[in-house]
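Thanks for the sequence, V.! I ran Tryptophan synthase beta chain-like PALP domain-containing protein right away. Repeating your input here for the record:
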Amino acid sequence: MFDLTALRQAAGLIAQSVPPTPQHRWPLLARRLGCEVWVKHENHTPAGAFKVRGGVLYVQRLLEREPQLRGMISATRGNHGLSLAMAAQKAGVPLKILVPEGNSAEKNAAMSACGAQLIEFGRDFDTARERAAQLAAQSGWHLVPALHPDLIQGVATYALELLEAAPPLRRVYVPIGMGSGICGMIRTRDLLGLETEIVGVVSSAADAYAQSFEQGRIVCTETAETFADGLACRMPAPEALDIIRTGAARILRVEDAAIRAAIRALHEDTHNTAEGAGAAALAGAMQERERNQGERIAVVLSGANIDRRLLAGILGE
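Predicted structure:
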């Protein structure tokens, strides 16, 4: 795992493509939650989500190891794939992305616009991920995993920005998809020697990480039927679970209705757009309103890539 010097070097490299995002304290959110609330605005990256940081670092380091790289293959519900597509296009590397059937039309369009070849396959992310591995083995193209040390280090730069810019925080709420965001937050907190509590948030309809955290072993679920596609994981990554079980205080389950309410709250109180996964952290903080009274907390708005019709329906509720 990386040290603080390596993390700062990664931040400098990533900043050439992804400028640091702001962290703001929002008075209306403070009134709503009864505590000081800082929002880390990863919805302000060029990709509209935090994943682009990991994509930039991963592709650069991959090319250093494999300068004759033929191409890359990966699976995604959107933000991971978009981050790779942007990095691959800049590097001139062919990229194939597997997405599940019925995936977000707007996320698909964004990946295609960045030059990725999209292949729809399977009922969910984990099925698409298995197919991506098969195609990579057949073609000899590099398989980009959903979780990797370079991806964690890349996305950890958002945590470095937040924890160094904001005043001391009692706790930070972080959404969990495959785990790179919360792993990066845990590692950065530890490197900075802070006592900030880190709380993971999952959808109650996709709670494989919560079950695994509680039972101390990998627990896979049969389904992950949540509109918050960035949280729709059925099969946790063992390496992420190890970090989370060591460094997170707990993992909260939030109902999809609570995530929708958090999307509306972010719009009303900050006029920012959040996708489902991006609003999950605030939903977790709202769920723990009593615990947070009088504290200073932060929530990670991890992304804004939500389809227009879905967002319109949520805001109109």
